[in-house]
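Quick one:
INPUT:
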């Protein structure tokens, strides 16, 4: 199929995105960045890790999107006394039949909000991350498939670190995106006040059904990616591992470990999904740059020297995007 034909097809197939966003914005003020990234993750079978202070409408946003897409939504508050079975479910003994039967946990849903995931011990985090990766859960001797689509949005509170169990870097790599959410602008917060003054029982129309999401995923796969764009993705990822080969020798002392191969795959998938949200049938370098921060930020491990100089992964990514040649 020619690029022009792909472009026309994508324009037609992505028309519902505008309607979907307008429904979500009945309840959500601003947060365009978070809304777009949640849609990118749902349409590419990815998961999101969010770092942000409480009260930024994370729960409301993902719940509203789930409502507009007819997806089942559940929220779990992670706590230090949580057990893996509280998440996945367990075997229950039936006195009448004298047999055990599986009682499925809250992870059996389409959209799961794992609130303050770093408060739960390692075993719980491991159980959740395994389910994210394998899309299935074992209860007793039986393996149960999770519903499709299955999307996890986990949050971390950057303020209180006492009594928390930070996710190891190897585990955060399983999240497609890591978002940093900040406070709303003055005018946006004013709109939030105005919205809360009105009747807040706003009806959200169903825009897309769960079974139609599979067709959206197949459509996104057809978006055209030039060979030069693929090489650009690889140059960016390899620049995180071997900065000296890309005239970025100054960064070498600041990076202990570069991005994993998952970064390359997610940059390809994420840029395609972003092009779809914009109604475009092909990927451009700006798509890579836009989604790149969210994909790379938790995959580059900084050295002690970088931390001593108060450098963040975003600073390093900015330098890489400036230094790597754009096709």
């Amino acid at each position: 199929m020619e690029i022009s034909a792909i472009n026309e097809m994508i324009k037609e197939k992505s028309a519902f995105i505008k309607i979907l966003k307008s429904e979500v914005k009945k309840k959500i003020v601003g947060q365009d960045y978070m809304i777009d990234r949640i849609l990118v993750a749902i349409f590419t079978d990815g998961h999101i890790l969010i770092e942000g202070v409480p009260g930024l409408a994370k729960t409301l946003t993902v719940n509203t999107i789930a409502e507009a897409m007819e997806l089942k939504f559940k929220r779990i508050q992670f706590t230090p006394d949580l057990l893996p079975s509280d998440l996945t479910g367990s075997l229950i003994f039936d006195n009448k039949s004298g047999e055990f039967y599986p009682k499925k946990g809250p992870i059996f849903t389409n959209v799961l909000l794992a609130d303050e995931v770093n408060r739960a011990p390692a075993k719980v985090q491991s159980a959740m991350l395994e389910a994210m990766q394998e899309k299935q859960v074992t209860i007793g001797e039986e393996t149960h498939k999770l519903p499709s689509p299955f999307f996890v949005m986990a949050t971390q509170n950057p303020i209180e670190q006492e009594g928390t169990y930070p996710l190891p870097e190897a585990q955060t790599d399983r999240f497609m995106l890591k978002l940093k959410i900040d406070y709303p602008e003055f005018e946006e917060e004013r709109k939030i006040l105005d919205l809360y003054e009105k009747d807040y029982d706003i009806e959200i129309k169903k825009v897309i059904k769960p079974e139609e999401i599979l067709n959206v995923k197949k459509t996104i796969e057809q978006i055209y990616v030039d060979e030069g764009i693929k090489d650009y993705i690889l140059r960016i990822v390899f620049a995180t591992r071997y900065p000296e080969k890309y005239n970025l020798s100054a960064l070498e002392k600041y990076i202990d470990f570069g991005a994993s191969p998952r970064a390359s795959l997610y940059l390809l998938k994420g840029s395609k999904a972003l092009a779809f949200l914009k109604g475009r049938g092909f990927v451009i370098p700006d798509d890579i740059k836009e989604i790149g921060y969210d994909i790379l930020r938790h995959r580059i491990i900084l050295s002690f020297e970088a931390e001593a100089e108060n450098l963040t992964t975003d600073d390093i990514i900015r330098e890489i995007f400036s230094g790597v040649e754009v096709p």
